[in-house]
Specification:
2 domains, 11 strands, 9 helices, 17% strand, Chitinase A, domain 3, 44% helix, 7-stranded antiparallel beta sheet, alpha+beta
Length: 286
């Protein structure tokens, strides 16, 4: 049972299609009910009895980002639940363990990029109904409903981000130190050098920081404390083109348009149609 619980946490919710990462989305009453049905359909595999209201409270504490008010951390929640499941069954969770399970399940969803606001009462109603075998809608219909809502929200965000990206790049191109290539890649030379230049087949070592136009840092070799090494043919088009403009020992800032980055693919922490800004130091070329 302990192994099943870990698999439940680490596999299903992060691969379920209808829970693809995307923007913050608000569910109406019907969608909130469907959300509860979907969650219940999965936790029923654990074959435990638990306090459904406390599960809902724990789930809500994390999903609605009241996290600072939660009674425990994710590690504490998992430890509490697995501590009970490690014993002989059948298993029955008390109020605190039920809360911990709800919190931990929501934590996995949030970590995977699921950001929703919902009606807690309707969520609980759907949860209880599905567990009692009396849901108003089948799980498949619930999944299709949620998938449709999240896809629509992502498409809307993608359109809005594309407009923001186009405006940013148009304004950025007017700066005296910014150059634009034929593909639309923009770059600024921070430090130049006369070293070796890589080609598209080179293996390069770099230090870098990647951020969005609002300043959000989404990746940084500096924060990890070690440079990154990769073949130039294995990265996004903006990197493949841009780093070939650099000489060994130089430092550039790249402004990568969505079509040379990740396009309209939604993800965490990079929203669809985002401009990617990278400060890059070229440390080695092989």
């Amino acid at each position: 049972m302990k192994k099943r619980f870990f698999l439940f946490f680490t596999a299903y919710f992060l691969t379920l299609e209808c829970f693809a990462a995307g923007p913050l989305t608000t569910f109406d009453n019907d969608a909130s009910y469907a959300f509860g049905v979907i969650i219940a359909g999965q936790i029923s595999d654990l074959e435990v009895t638990f306090d459904k209201r406390q599960f809902s409270e724990g789930f809500f504490a994390q999903m609605e980002d009241t996290g600072g008010k939660s009674r425990l951390s994710f590690e504490e929640a998992v430890a509490k639940v697995t501590g009970v499941l490690s014993g002989e069954g059948p298993h029955s969770f008390d109020a605190e363990t039920s809360y911990a399970m709800g919190f931990a399940v929501a934590y996995q969803l949030v970590s995977g990029g699921i950001k929703v606001k919902y009606n807690k009462a309707q969520f609980l109603k759907g949860l209880e109904a599905e567990l009692a075998g009396a849901s108003e809608i089948p799980i498949k219909d619930a999944e299709e409903k949620i998938e449709g809502i999240l896809e629509m929200a992502t498409e809307t965000q993608a359109k809005e981000n594309l407009a923001k990206s186009e405006k940013f790049l148009a304004d950025n191109a007017k700066k005296h130190n910014v150059k634009t290539t034929q593909s639309g890649l923009q770059y600024a030379v921070i430090k130049n050098s006369a070293g070796t230049k890589p080609d598209a087949e080179s293996l390069v070592t770099v230090n870098y920081e990647g951020r969005l136009i609002d300043g959000t840092v989404f990746d940084s070799s500096y924060e990890r404390g070690e440079p990154a090494q990769f073949p130039l043919g294995d990265v996004i088009a903006g990197w493949t083109e841009g780093i070939q403009l650099m000489s060994l020992g130089s430092k550039f800032t790249f402004y990568i348009p969505p079509n040379l980055g990740y396009g309209d693919m939604a993800g965490i922490p990079i929203p669809p149609n985002s401009v990617l800004i990278f400060d890059v130091e070229l440390l080695a070329v092989e």
